[in-house]
Structure prediction request, 278 residues.
Amino acid sequence: MQILDGKTLGKEIQEEIRLEVEKLSKKPHLAVILVGDNPASKIYVNTKNKTCERLGINSTVITLPENTTEDELKLKIKTLNEDSDVNAILVQLPLPEHINTANCIKEISPIKDVDGFTPENLGAVICGKQPYAYPCTPFGIITLLKRNNIEISGKHAVVIGRSNIVGKPLSLMLLKENATVTMCHSKTKNLKEITKTADILVSATGNRIITKDMVKKDAIVIDVGIIRNKEGKLEGDVYFDEVKEVASYITPVPGGVGPMTIAALMKNTFELFLMQNK
Ligand code: GUN
Prediction:
């Protein structure tokens, strides 16, 4: 069994980007909008900000109060679209409940859409075309597989979770890499029978569900879950200690998919900057 070490690879990718950014006279600029005070979101935004700083990427965090209206948020996005100094825009999710997320996301200029969440970018992914940016978590996972020389083509990939952020785009990206893809979700019947046939098993549910008996021998197991347990420790969807007994490769939590997502965000920011400065 081999650990898929996202922490080390994420650092490597960050270093590659840092060296490229160092050569530039003008620097990339990521703007992050954070609405309200979701504690987890605040931590994520802080991490993104600090990583930018380390890589020589300019970053601005725009903090808006919980009672911000949809129109006010859209106006902010419009201002950033028009600001030629900003290359990448990220609206941290989840947004407060009174705001329609899809309505706001579609206001982001596709070429500045660092999350790849706009209809234009997701539409490109559906068509098997290159978007301006791929959603960061799926992009990080594909990078983790490829840089560990794991063959995707012809494999049966089972993705649990159908979110717009992870499950849906990742399924399409695995399909583009010629995997045979099965999408599972909370209403799937006989989940175990399906996961038992997975060569690549991705779990993105936020619930502790993946036990050893659900995993085929020598499967590649990717854990997207981040759950804080009663002791305050982070753990994933996968019962790591038992599943590692059967898997050929497995991502730990923390230190697997999380750092790859951050690395993908930095890569996207850098690439959007290059596209806008051609
Ligand atoms: N919240 C959780 N994951 C993400 C992400 O990848 N992008 C944004 N914008 N918000 C998130």
In short: The chain has two domains: 25-109, 136-258. The chain has a mean pLDDT of 98.
